[in-house]
Amino acid sequence: MATPRVRRSTAVLGSTVLATALLLSACSSGGSGSKDSADGKVTITVDLFGTFGFKEAGLYDEYMKLHPNVTIKQTDTQDEGQYWQALQTKLAGGGGLADIQGLEVGRVASVVQKQADKFTDLKTLGLGDVNDGLVPWKGAAVKTADGKVLGAGTDIGPEAICYRTDLFKAAGLPTDRTELAQKWSTWQGYLDLGKQYAAKAEAGNAWTDSAAGMFTAEVGQQKVRYSDESGKAVYDSSPAVKTAWSDATALVADGLSAKLAQWTPEWNKAFSTGKFATLSCPAWMIGYIKGQAGDTGAGKWDIAPGPGKTGNWGGSYLAVPRTAKHPKEAAELIKWLTAKEQQATLFTKQGSFPSSTGAQQAIKDVTDPYFNNAPIGQIFSESANAMPAQVLGTDDGVIGKAFTDALGEVERTGTAPDTAWKHALDNVKKANGN
Amino acid sequence: MALSSTARLPAAKPGEPARPARRPGRLRRRIAPYGFLAPFFGLFAAFGLFPLLYTAWVSLHRVELQTSDRMDWLGLQNYSRLLSDPFFWNALRNTFTIGVLSTVPQLLMALGLAHLLNYKLRGRTFFRVAMLMPYATSVAAATLVFAQLFGRDYGLINWVLSSTGLNPVDWQADTWASQFGVSAIVTWRWTGYNALIYLAGMQSIPGELYESAAVDGASRWQQFRHVTVPGLRPTIVFTVVVSTIGATQLFGEPLLYEGNSGGGISHQYQTLGLYLYEQGWTFFHLGRAAAVAWVMFLLIVLLALLNAAIAARRNRTDR
């Protein structure tokens, strides 16, 4: 006969084991999901990076008005690098993914070549022709060798230069767009004007935000950047990278950089304090400037065609992961968001330049009051028309970051450009060497 | 782990109740403790041992996060690559310097604070609770606040520096400044915790020792040196071991300091933990990350053994 005490201890033991078992099963049945009520209501989740501007331009509200049963929930990460990292972790784990995920153009080659099985072929959702009305390279970049369509093109990133007219005036520089575009028709001209600015500007007001911004903009003007048409890595020898590197380091040597790291809180704050006078501006940067500089920045900024009058920096796609809960509804939303009417609205309100040729026709005459009524439609259209169809490699994102980090070393720690160049190559090797 | 070890520290109280007389059911009684331990070992096997062994298995393969269902046998190649990677040695060096920069001032300050708190003070309980507040703050919250303070252009610290006529410091890009910044967060978070452990240790030192030292004319400082510190030796060894392990695994603070896994533009404050994370979740090389994890594990075991050996040696020479 067991004593009461022993019996109690077995009971405790039993319940502990039970609790453990429950705990374990609770762990295994995890996973996030949007709950939908029984009355046909659907919640579509959208996960993006940077500022796509759908929400800001009121497109979600409009769509929800058109489809009363749909609720759209958006989450976003400011820094695309962090977004990509989180996306990869979720793809590997197979959970926590939204119905619609944004993809940056620098990553699509990687998705197409390595992860085609993790995303839904949009053809199976009735969107086989979704990229047909876009500039040709945009759609080609998300098509796999066997013809799957993994994403729908949203915007592209034609380049210009954004500048602060108030700071230009204070430094005695012209503020007229055509005059400026002429003066900085080359990157050398841009640096020369910067030196003029630096001679007169107040201490602490730099010519531009960072060497990284200038580097990325300049590299983006060439067809071959980090890998060539055959997929071979050429980042250490391509003329695009070498020229941009030497111009960006010259910028630092001339003391024209505010030495900020892009996409950091310090950089964001500098938009409103006026720590820099110019910024390499892909079209989508317009929305970013408005977001960061806010109402106080209205009328202070202007836009002019930049050196070379073209360039291709960034731009995005929308994709549906395999695990999406509502692929049908997501596809419908994607179709609507990337249609030419919405692309045109997005440009007018947010500045994201359409990849749809139809929308490009429609926005030719758009001006932006925030930027002193600059003819942004005309400036970015001209830039887009001359834009190279870039060769995209699987490691473009990583390689770009290695170079911009190294430029950060040059401007912030005084590392010699040659040493920093070696660091950049080391960093690429660290990321993908075997 | 920390809690159970600290609970062990005060000496066992004398006069435990006498063992009850033998009764039937002795066998079950003997088994029961193992039953009680079983959940722990069950959990440990599932969440400790299995991941440990599986990590070792993964570290012998090429595994990429983007194609994580594919494993290609590599043998020890991940390890040899690791040892020939200058960034690994850089991370090891940073881990060491940040470890020293954070652990040494942290423990010294904790010792001093515990000594002060051991006096009869007004509002003693308040101070003791207040000491634990930083420890109760989440790493993320603390680091984000410190990152703001250490901001280069708009941070409070640089503002104070420049308003006193000193040159502002680039707390992110500069090697020593950034390592100091990261160490400051660690020190802020853990000093109070260690102080409380020391305090507990101090309170187990009998008051008579202090009294007789005072009778012999020992000053407060001499009392501290010759009574408190020797009495605290086991506690100090414990905190050193725990802090060393913590410093080796340092991760959250440097990750959130600038919000990237590179540990600064020149990797100047990239610790081993960050290096692992960067390989695994920025570059997606899970096999390499697993190899780093195992090297870190072995390193910690080595450090713990070293600590134990030093402690044992000191005990022997003292007797």
Automatic annotation (TrEMBL), chain A:
The lineage of its organism: Bacteria, Bacillati, Actinomycetota, Actinomycetes, Kitasatosporales. It comes from Kitasatospora phosalacinea. Residues 1-30 form the signal peptide. Keywords: Signal. It comes from the Bacteria. This is Sugar-binding protein. Transmembrane segments: none annotated. The keyword Signal applies. The keyword Protein biosynthesis does not apply. InterPro entries: Bact_solute-bd_prot1, SBP.
Automatic annotation (TrEMBL), chain B:
The keyword Transport applies. The chain crosses the membrane at residues 31-54, 96-117, 129-150, 291-312. Signal peptide: none annotated. GO terms for biological process: transmembrane transport. Gene3D superfamilies: MetI-like. It is a multi-pass membrane protein. PROSITE patterns: ABC_TM1. Belongs to the binding-protein-dependent transport system permease family. This is ABC transporter permease. It comes from Kitasatospora phosalacinea. The lineage of its organism: Bacteria, Bacillati, Actinomycetota, Actinomycetes, Kitasatosporales.
